[in-house]
Amino acid sequence: MESAVQVENLVKRFGSLTAVDGVSFSVERGEVFGILGPNGAGKTTTLEIMETLQKPSEGRVRVLGLDVQASAAEVKARIGVQLQASAYYSYLTLKEILSLLGSFYPKRTAPEALLELVDLSDKAASRVGQLSGGQQQRFAVAASLVNDPELMILDEPTTGLDPQARRNLWGLIREVNQRGVTVVLTSHYMEEAEVLCDRLAIMDHGKILALDTPRNLINQLQASYTVKLTMDKPMTATQLSALNGNIELIQSCEQAEPKGKEAMPENTYLLRLANTPSALKAMLDEIAKTDLGLENLQITPVTLEDVFLELTGSELRD
Amino acid sequence: MIALVLANLKMMSRNRQAIFWALFFPLLLVVVFGLFEVNGVGAADAVVIDQSESPGSELFLERLGEIEFLNLESGETDPAAAREKIADGDLGYLIIIPEKFDDSASVTLVYSTRNPDRNQLVDGAVRNLVSEIQSSNGPVVPSQLLTADVIQVDQVDYYDNVLLGLLALGIMTNSIISIAVRISTFRNQSILKRLLVTPLPIWKYFAAEITAHVALALVQAAIILAVGVFGFGGHVNGNLLWVFAIVALGSIVFLNIGFILSAWAKTPAAASGMGNAVALPMMFLAGTFFSTAALPWVMPQVVQALPLTPMLTALRDVAVDGVPIWETWPSLAALGAWIVVTAAAATRVFKFG
């Protein structure tokens, strides 16, 4: 069977701005595929080309084996789309909106079944304006399933939701995926990508910087922990380099604020540590030798956040 | 597409406030014009031409002036010109006192068929007066007191013309503004974009919007006409089906204009303002309330070029003058041309995102 999505050397220019700059990837059937990146990375543009809303400047995109340009109508009929921040008719009930959307497709699912799936059966006669943010996003998922699609494309489905509503939606997306629907989503939440996606493309400035499973991306770093160290007195360059060995300095408080990073408090250093007990012991020994007084020490497992920092040199712009 | 038309109608009917104001504005004018009694049903304006200039005729004139519902106008002395005014509805009555009035010659009363109730009243009053004055000279022959010279006209009055003007006005403003506001709202909420990712063909989307709005326009037309006719004694002389057909055609032109405006309007409020800016000048220039014949310079040509003008002309031709719809074909052709031009422009400038 062909891939659900195949993107080859995709370029999209808006005037002098290159929003998508030579992107290639493929999404296998049955996967949850995430595109992770800050705002303006080119995620939405990439999705909109897959959704036939925009024409590629260069390159080729095939969805469900169909060329998105040549077979736009068939692509539309077989995919389900949730746009970023799109609303629905305010004067129709949820059930009526689903029936109406369904009437545009050759194949359709009963509104009742969709509302049941997203746990909004009791809101069938309500209007979108009467729903909470989380319910609205769940409804948007239901609306993107009216045609029983083979592929569902979700653009930042959880942006603006509180943590509980976000987890709730993750569960729903998982459930839809388990019913056999391939899912492509974008996000700028690392945690979400880590939890939800089988594979992940990290995108910035129109390019894909890395593409792998979340686990492999993290393992690529060859470090398992980040260490945030705060001393009573500043460390000298010699003392800092003495910490080296299995340790890599990412940022120290002396650095002038680099782009995208927060300024760190006085005498604070951010280090990355390999996953060996000896590395941790060696570091603590070296710190003891300096006699500068350890004020605070935080050791956290490496996350996608660190992967992103490593790849782009900046933190995710929210 | 039928599902979309039905959904559109459902949404419109649920947006009660919008419906109310769309109907309310033209209805308000219908009522205001109705209350003003623009036809002067109570008072009758009359011109008297005294060819006798005798003591009897002077007494007659004096007594005539005492009749409350008669407003005697002076100035017009040419019977032919006065007759023309009556035929045009600019004058109610002409009373000619003949040379041999004192020899019990009969007075001539000229009037049109426009206002039968008033005619009866005036006829009776004048007849009585003649009888009274001439009876002082001797016995009178009742049938020789007054000669009625009746000018046959269709039952038309100013109010009928205004009523149709208001009808066209209501359809125009509602079509332009409601579609412009609606589309710009949908665009702002990304609803249009959401529809674009479904396989619904774009032309079906437009067709559904236009069908639903034309249906609304027809309901609006029916209400305005009903209030005007039953509430304030307006008349529709022509075939109602044709009136509605013209309403539908005109509505399509203005809906297309609304689509065009919505392409430029960044917010629904801007769309509403733009709609008013287009509709209001057109309302005055196209002769909704009064004749535009006196407009200076190239304005008469400009007026002819406005889309509201052929709609009004066609409506008045059919509804007031009662001509068959095909006889007003130049107006219909103009409306058709407007539909083609505005539709082409709308599809060119329209933006979904």
End-to-end separation of chain B: 21 Å
Strand content of chain B: 5-15%
Taking the alpha carbons of the first and last residues of chain A, their distance comes to 37 Å
Strand % of chain A is: 25-35%
Structural class based on helices, strands and sheet pairing of chain B: alpha/beta
How many beta strands in the DSSP annotation of chain B? 5
Q: What CATH architecture label of the largest domain in chain A applies?
A: 3-Layer(aba) Sandwich
Oligomer: heterodimer
Shape of chain B: elongated
- Number of helices, where a helix is a run of at least 4 consecutive DSSP H or I residues of chain B: 13
Order of helices and strands of chain A: EEEHEEHEHHHEHEHEEHEHEEHEH
Helix count of chain A equals 11
Q: Domain count of chain B, please report it.
A: 2
Largest sheet of chain A: 6 strands, mixed
Strand order of the largest sheet of chain A: 6-7-8-3-9-10
Overall, the morphology of chain A is elongated
